[in-house]
Amino acid sequence: IPPAMASPPIATFSIGWIAALSHELTAGRLMPDKEYPDAPEDFDPSSSDTNTYTFGRIGRHHVVIAVLGTGDYGLVSAAETASRLSASMPHIRIGLMVGIGAGVSISKNVRLGDIAVSEPIGTHGGLIQYDLFKAAVESGNPHDQRTGFLSRPPRALLTALQKLKSSHDMDESFIEEHIEHAFQRRPRLKKSFGFPGRERDPQASAKSRAEDDSDSPEVHYGIIASGNVLVKRSQTRDAVLDSLATEHIHPICFEMEAAGLMNTFPCLVIRGLCDYADELKNDVWQKYAALVAAAYAKDLLGHVDKREIDTGPLLAQLLNDSQYGISIEDERFAETRKCRPSTRMLVKSKARQSP
């Protein structure tokens, strides 16, 4: 275990890392090269800040990890957590949302334990909120129109992403090394956070990978679909996928928090895949999936240029930059925002099925 040492000044922390669940926080805490036992002496959080923070260093970067409160989940809770973090630490320059998600395995060879990373494609910033629309009228015909779009991740992260993809192409991935190092530090966690075994993947027989059938996690880049409802029925999943396909959007992953962040805390979204958004969803893969996502995040930060961060814009400044600007609808249209009828009916059905 790295020796404890005093935390550096709060202004040196430039990277905000948000986790939604306790095991996502645990996975995140396994990654720093140094974890500081206390907050910086000069840390003066906002009076309304109820977040819990962990401070550490990964390589040359000082990182603060925030976690949603117990029992909190979804877009609103994530947005509130990010807002409090930004208010208490306005010097944060890049953000990461790291945790678990559901893999979309229809068109890609996606397996449990793989990693999904949001990457801008076309006009989309890498993340889509699939259940938010407003009523619109075009040529006298009413129809649903997607409300705005979500911000792109900061440039420093997108640059690092390209460097990391090239390194992985050259078989220079440190994801498994970071995982092994984490277990060396905390051997007891290997039992609960270790690889569950491919036989516990309900689609394992259909997911064999050519000659080199390794259990090493693969990384998938593309659009991540975020919404207010936990997708755990294939009917719900397929309805959302069909709806998005009409807009030529083909997500690689479902999750529940990130869309709440992107317009107040532009970040890269990293998800370890723990289920297929269907009836076979369970908790078996969650901790390992959280760990591989955290290990990928550490690998990524090794490619982030500290000078680019230090001289780059604050997150708050990005929100005023037209390149990252958010298409915000006029407030007079607020009352017309709605889910698509098909999605809304599935949400209602889901609510009736909940205990």
Automatic annotation (TrEMBL):
<dbReference type="InterPro" id="IPR035994">
    <property type="entry name" value="Nucleoside_phosphorylase_sf"/>
</dbReference>
<protein>
    <recommendedName>
        <fullName>Nucleoside phosphorylase domain-containing protein</fullName>
    </recommendedName>
</protein>
<dbReference type="GO" id="GO:0009116">
    <property type="term" value="P:nucleoside metabolic process"/>
</dbReference>
<feature type="region of interest" description="Disordered">
    <location>
        <begin position="191"/>
        <end position="218"/>
    </location>
</feature>
<feature type="domain" description="Nucleoside phosphorylase">
    <location>
        <begin position="44"/>
        <end position="283"/>
    </location>
</feature>
<dbReference type="Pfam" id="PF01048">
    <property type="entry name" value="PNP_UDP_1"/>
</dbReference>
<dbReference type="InterPro" id="IPR000845">
    <property type="entry name" value="Nucleoside_phosphorylase_d"/>
</dbReference>
<dbReference type="InterPro" id="IPR053137">
    <property type="entry name" value="NLR-like"/>
</dbReference>
<dbReference type="GO" id="GO:0003824">
    <property type="term" value="F:catalytic activity"/>
</dbReference>
